[in-house]
Amino acid sequence: MRHLTFERTDGEPVAFVPGQFIQFHFQYADGTPTKRSYSIATRSDDPSAGGRVEIAVSYVSGGAATERLAHLAVGETIDASGPYGRFCLQDGDHNGRYLLVATGTGVTPYRAMLPSLAQAIGERGCEVALVYGARNEAELLYGEEFEAFARDVPGFSFHPCFSRVPRTPPRPGDRNGRVQVALADLAPDPARDIAYLCGNPDMVDESFALLQHAGLAVRQIRREKYVSSR
């Protein structure tokens, strides 16, 4: 994975709502135009961000986006549009808990949401549980940042799930297995929960089924699937 930061060439800030994404426009080697979407990872409470856009890019073998974005040099430009999307926190929410579930770079919109989540916890006393699946500790994107946030913000908990290699030594909240293990342990409750699912399509579908089995209505489950494209 690679963390990238962009700014507009005209120097203006990029206005976005946490949870939205940017589309990058480029060409295949044969000149055919294409585009890829990446969730914005920028935290509004980060004074060093300065109105810039941060994203995370995962490596896809032979991927056109990997080739273009992974080899961008400092100061290079790329065409982009947006922001787009409605995978955002909603003003009318009155739930007692958010269940945020992610795999891979699907965790980036939750990083952008952290200031808004802290505000919701402080203003209406809701809880937030972030369940994040990775194959091993090295692939736990922004893991240290989420752990620090959990220490600083009562009501926020972080649950890393390692599907292949567990962390040694394990830390509080760690799970061995896929995200569905931690999600089931959190006992989804239709009376108080709103869930967000972002990442691998199989994970999103399986977690959606688990949440529906627990009694959550479709309107209580918000989804965004990440598909690795060449």
UniProtKB/TrEMBL annotation:
Coiled coil: none
Domain FAD-binding FR-type: 1-90
Tagged with keyword Nucleotide-binding: yes
Entry's EC annotation: 1.18.1.2
TM regions (residue ranges): none
Top-rank taxon, per record: Bacteria
Cofactor section: [2Fe-2S] cluster
Signal peptide: none
Nucleotide-binding keyword on record: yes
InterPro entries noted in UniProt: Cbr1-like_FAD-bd_dom, FAD-bd_FR_type, Flavoprot_Pyr_Nucl_cyt_Rdtase, FNR_bac, FNR_nucleotide-bd, MRET, OxRdtase_FAD/NAD-bd, Riboflavin_synthase-like_b-brl
Entry similarity comment: Belongs to the ferredoxin--NADP reductase type 1 family.
Name of the protein described by the UniProt record: ferredoxin--NADP(+) reductase
Organism: Dokdonella koreensis DS-123
Lineage: Bacteria, Pseudomonadati, Pseudomonadota, Gammaproteobacteria, Lysobacterales
